[in-house]
């Protein structure tokens, strides 16, 4: 189903100016009378598919599960409870982009699906297999199982060719009513003030997008697919004229990576930058003597960052990447994510008021520093856990944002640690001692063996929240 974002509006009083009527004329030729989007729709709609999925989900039936106080204690079926399996169905849209039946859709449309069926506009239905799911970009690839002849398909067109105000069409299966076409314009390019996926870089359109449209194409008037419809701003699930599509450049990178076999357990292995950056606001621009705001100010660099290797430094302002202007850190991340691994991209920066240019190589997240994975034993809260130093490669494997510190990489079922912690928890401190590495934890454990503890205090971070457990 389509992802919804809540929108809250404030009312404002506006001065209303008189609108003067412009001269109206009747169509001057037969061609003008018959102007229509129909030729574009006839070209593209045969390649747009409806996607039907089924997945088995387990629900816990516990009398306390909905209680406002006790409910949080029964999350994850901690205290047993009766589990009931149900089959859930959902629908979405997709578009065929290759003659062999390769289909692009949204990851959230097909995530965890056990059965997938695609229906073409001509009435044909086919079972489909998942070829790739990448939640980071919210994109997925499907392949039609059966060998089918005369499969229609469309071509991707660079979204960079779009301009704000261009006419576009959205095609999909809203609310399951059947294939539907809506029209609108490109409202904005490079919209990054959202939190929809890991890359946060979208085409905004006012073409009506509703539940079921997810995964359908955003199409230009020459029949090129420039984006995959992914999300809307909505208060009630209906279209408010603010929709977002994933640019075709990201779609192309997913297809290329799947073809080259450059995938991992979490989907595609994307280029890693190893940088922390912030937007250049008007205040920052004024303080640095820049004519206008824009760009990404480098705040820190990982020791293995390819930017650092290329010669960039903290304080540099990234203004372009791959020949494209950079507005903010989100756009920098998006642009680098579309560069194939092993290739180089030119990056332009401003350093102390002077423009400089560097070549940055696209590399996979490195396994640096060493993980130093250690299985914890003994009479302590972490007994049964495997702890490791976080590095970019491990962070990718575990789906973490943090790239330093100590993480619980694995937990033995039924152990002491399994009752208190989860895989992915960051251990920030033990018994008032900060633990920035596995070596720090080993040292704390060694000290407690000399003087056995009557109580343990563990500070950890879960889902961005710092928590503390005290065991006496």
What is the average per-residue confidence, as pLDDT, rounded to a whole number?
A: 83
Q: How many domains would you count in the coordinates?
A: 4
The CATH topology of the largest domain turns out to be Thrombin, subunit H
Give the strand order, joined by hyphens, for the main sheet: 8-9-10-13-12-11
Rg of Cα set = 26 Å
Beta-strand content estimate? 35-45%
SSE class: alpha+beta
Largest sheet: 6 strands, antiparallel, barrel
What is the 3D shape? Answer: globular
Structure report:
With 472 residues, the protein is α+β, with helices and mostly antiparallel strands. It folds into 4 domains: 46-144, Beta Barrel (Thrombin, subunit H), CATH 2.40.10; 159-260, Thrombin, subunit H, CATH 2.40.10.10; 271-361, Pdz3 Domain (Roll); 374-471, PDZ domain (Pdz3 Domain), CATH 2.30.42. Helices cover 15% and strands 36% of the residues. It contains 10 helices and 28 strands. The chain has helices at 30-33, 38-44, 107-110, 248-260, 282-287, 306-310, 329-337, 392-398, 416-420, 438-450, and strands spanning 3-5, 48-61, 82-96, 102-106, 115-119, 125-134, 139-144, 167-172, 180-191, 202-205, 217-220, 225-233, 243-247, 263-264, 267-268, 275-279, 296-301, 317-321, 324-325, 344-351, 354-361, 374-375, 385-389, 406-411, 426-430, 433-434, 456-462, 465-471. The strands form 6 sheets. Strands 8-9-10-13-12-11 form a 6-stranded antiparallel barrel. A 6-stranded antiparallel beta barrel has the order 2-3-4-7-6-5. Strands 16, 17, 18, 19, 20 and 21 form a 6-stranded antiparallel beta sheet that branches. Strand 3 (82-96) and strand 4 (102-106) form a beta hairpin. The longest helix is centred in the middle third of the chain and has 13 residues, at 248-260. The relative contact order is 0.09. Residues 1-21 and 67-73 have low confidence and may be disordered.
